[in-house]
Amino acid sequence: MITVKEDGGTKSVKYPEAKCTCPVINAEISTANGLPLEGYAALNEGNMNGSCIAPVGHVWSYFSQVTTYPQESYTPKFTTALGVKQECPAGTKAVNCWNYLCTLDAKTTNGAQTATCSCPIGEGYFGGPVAPTESSITEAGSYYQPPSLACSMLPVSGPVPTGAGRN
User: Fold this and answer.
1) Which of 19, 24, 97, 150 could serve as 140's disulfide partner, Cβ 3.0–4.6 Å?
2) What is the rounded distance in angstroms from the CA atom of residue 151 to the CA atom of residue 156?
3) Buried b / exposed e across 56-66, counting CB within 10 Å, b at 16+?
4) Are 82 and 141 spatial neighbours (Cβ–Cβ below 8 Å)?
5) Exposure string (b/e) for 143-165, b if CB count within 10 Å is 16 or more?
6) Would you say 77 and 41 are in contact if contact means Cβ atoms under 8 Å apart?
């Protein structure tokens, strides 16, 4: 179980925990995307403590507008490619990795720096549980055959509230 902060850090809730391997977005990747190296975080949510400054050997997982970055795939692992969104069906167990501390992995994978993140299963982006009727959006599995395989692998994703428009 992982303890997470919700409601701006005013309450703590326990969720089942997933370990996720994520690419680290660095200045080189941001520049290749024509973007500054920046991201978006809720400083008192997840397991953040009011600052984006991470301890040595760690990074924070937060949102970025980068669209081309190392993607996990069967062969080769972590190839740089465009992230392609897919919708996983209602009932899929989504994993929220926004605002969580990640440990930098000692070895790169196919030249990509990765980090292992501990994140809650079934928590929405802004706290609270994901309803069983909500589908989720992920870029995980973009290069699997078929991509939908990732939907059963606890992908880092976000819920699409029931009745929300799909773009």
Assistant:
1) 150
2) 10
3) eeebbbbebeb
4) no
5) bbeebeebbebbbbbbbbeeeee
6) no
Q: Give the separation between CA 136 and CA 139, rounded to whole angstroms.
A: 10
* Residues 156 and 136: beta-carbon distance below 8 Å: no
CB atoms within 10 A of CB 133: 11
| d(C-alpha 166, C-alpha 140), whole Å | 18
Sheet holding 17-23, edge to edge: 17-23, 114-120, 100-104, 58-61
Q: What is the DSSP letter of 43?
A: T
Q: What is the reported pTM?
A: 0.85
The ranges of the chain with pLDDT < 50 are: 164-167
Q: What's the CA gap between 86 and 138, in Å, rounded?
A: 6
Cis peptide before 129 (omega within 30 of 0): no
pLDDT tens-digit map of 114-145: 999 999 999 987 788 988 888 999 888 877 88
Alpha-carbon span 46 to 76, nearest angstrom: 32
